[in-house]
Design goal:
This protein has three helices and 14 strands. With 338 residues, it is mainly β. The relative contact order is 0.15.
Length: 338
């Protein structure tokens, strides 16, 4: 490997790490990570308890894979008073050669209020707070000053003065969401959320402050019956954090296999586009109280020469507990002589 190629790889990894510093954890299947999407989504589902798991791995063709794990749990009517919901979200992201690790724990709450007399339209107000820890290991990193003109020499000084390898700060996020259940198979929703409201200091240096930019999230989705067995599910999300912008849009088609007395089984397939970055395919299945989704990103950005269009593989899993069982109604046939 020539020195010029090594230098290019160093610059590439440097900019990837800068992107991690600049942006929060988020997923391509944003609809399947509700507490990361908007605090107002806490408890907004049909059932009593919901458990959500997400896993994403990316950039394996460029450098050491970046892996993101997420687990969330929330409950409807969390307090004795109706319409209050509560939840917890745990995220961990491990990036690159330095094993740059972000570990985050948030608790959230929401309140749902009807905006129509028949309660088909509702607004949810959410608040989320927690703690984030970021940790980095400098030992595995290579620096350009350690190339002596011919080879990499690990005995040369990095000429860097790192003050610390770990940083902990508080999180504060809020949001509002709108839900409209028009008919059984026709609904729309939208929301807006703001993360990192207090702009916490995330600097690894003792004196210099590096504020974490606020992140604005605007999202919308729908589910609409187009035939007896087929629904379409368009959705979009816009994110802005500092100088970074991201816009995802697309949709899925769902084929309903069974929908009868508590049994709901369906499969879906979709395609999305993330502006100036990637396109991705999604596929999944609803099986009663379970929902599973799988997606794969195809990189289309200027990183293509290194990524070879390989992006990220993502898996999402949701399980909902409903304490009220569905009752099967038994119809008695009256005898002819009555």
């Amino acid at each position: 490997m020539g020195i010029h190629l090594k230098y290019r790889l160093f610059v590439l990894v440097f900019f990837l790490v800068q992107a991690i510093f600049g942006q929060d954890i988020h997923f391509s299947q944003f609809d399947l990570s509700p507490l990361n999407l908007n605090p107002a989504q806490t408890g907004q589902f049909v059932g009593d308890y919901r458990f959500v798991g997400n896993y994403r791995t990316q950039w394996s063709s460029v450098t050491v894979p970046y892996n993101t794990f997420s687990f969330g749990a929330d409950a409807r009517n969390f307090l004795p008073q109706k319409n209050f919901a509560g939840g917890i979200q745990i995220n961990q992201d491990v990036a690159g050669d330095s094993r740059f690790r972000t570990f985050q724990t948030n608790v959230s709450g929401s309140y749902l209020t009807p905006v129509s007399e028949d309660s088909t339209q509702n607004l949810s107000f959410g608040l989320q707070a927690g703690v984030t820890n970021k940790n980095i290991s400098y030992d595995p990193l290579f620096f350009d000053v350690q190339f002596d003109g011919y080879i990499y020499n690990p005995n040369l000084s990095t000429q860097e003065n790192f003050a610390k390898s770990s940083k902990t700060y508080l999180n504060l996020n809020s949001g509002i969401a709108y839900f409209n259940q028009i008919e059984k198979r026709k609904k729309i929703g939208a929301g807006i959320a703001l993360f990192n409201i207090t702009k916490p200091d995330q600097s690894f240096y003792n004196e210099a402050e590096i504020k974490l930019d606020r992140r604005l999230v605007i999202h919308a989705n729908a589910e609409w019956a187009v035939s007896e067995k087929i629904n379409v599910l368009p959705s979009l999300i816009y994110l802005r954090q500092g100088k970074y912008n991201e816009f995802n849009f697309g949709g899925s088609g769902k084929y309903i296999l069974t929908d009868f007395i508590g049994m709901y089984r369906a499969v879906w397939l979709g395609i999305y586009y993330r502006n100036k970055d990637a396109g991705f395919f999604t596929a999944g299945m609803d099986y009663d109280n379970w929902k599973i989704g799988l997606s794969y990103d195809i990189n289309t950005s200027t990183l293509v020469p290194a990524s070879r269009r390989r992006g990220g593989l993502e898996l999402a899993l949701i399980y909902i507990i409903n304490k009220i069982p569905f009752k099967r109604i038994q119809h008695r046939v009256c005898p002819d002589y009555i």
